[in-house]
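Example (one chain per record):
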Amino acid sequence: MKSTGEEIKSAHELVKRVEADIARQAAEGKRIHIIWDFDSVLSSPLSDDVFAHVNGDLEKYFDYEARMSMSPPRPGLWLPLAEKIGKLHSSQDIVTTRSSFLAFRVMVFCIWHASSDISKWMRWILFVGHQSKGDSFRIILESFRNDADMIVYYIDDSEKHIGTFSDISRKLGMSGRTVGIVSPKIRNYSREQFEWHYQSVMGALGDDAALVPGTPGGYANGHLVLPGGLAGFRTVIAKSFLRAEQKAVIDQFGPVLESECKDLFPGEPVTPKRLHSAFRFLQEEAIHDTMVIDEIMEEAVRSGKLE
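Predicted structure:
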């Protein structure tokens, strides 16, 4: 499973050749757009290996990915080149076979590795679901069809997908402006390390996040795992929202809430939790008052007293 030193060297030489080719075309006045596959290209092949390990069982694969919701996929072979957006190439997209909640880890990865302006790191992220990869290629290529100075690269670890990209390029009359690159899969972990990681992820128990061994490096390079999967992730988000709201309302309405808190909890110490409860009480009162006013207004309109 683990790539040999020669395989790793050859893969990095390919990246350097592609980078040099892009730099040459940019120096000639061309602008470069790169379409990236995600798994095994921008990110490591770990998720692809899990999919193969469970023999394509989507339920088991989804369970693994859901447990890994808080852990961005590890960098792949091509991430350093993608990070040169704006310096080497003009723009980039991601086309991936991920869909539904599996797509979330792509977003986490991009947020984790993007430059300071996250919104400009990727132009589009196109997932498979209502459209195929081929349809995604067509959408992207048609967006550049009338831009003669734009060269479009597509990098994927699947020869089949590179072939589809080339076919669509030809049908759109863009063969002279597109380049397909088949990327090797580079793994820096052994079969034993992979097995240890997978079993640790799937064996994690409890209501809170757990640290499991990464690949490679064990716990020194560990992943944060949610044993509850998506339900556990929802709990994390809800708690984060509650903390953020609590701080915001106390910062903004502190004096008012302190006064209300003393009325609601006489003789009790004023705490952030009680201040937030006071805010919720006032909020519910305001909602009730608004509903009453709306009902009065609607009745007035129905009776003709208000036009």
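Caption: Residues 5-188 form a domain with the Rossmann fold fold (CATH 3.40.50.1000).
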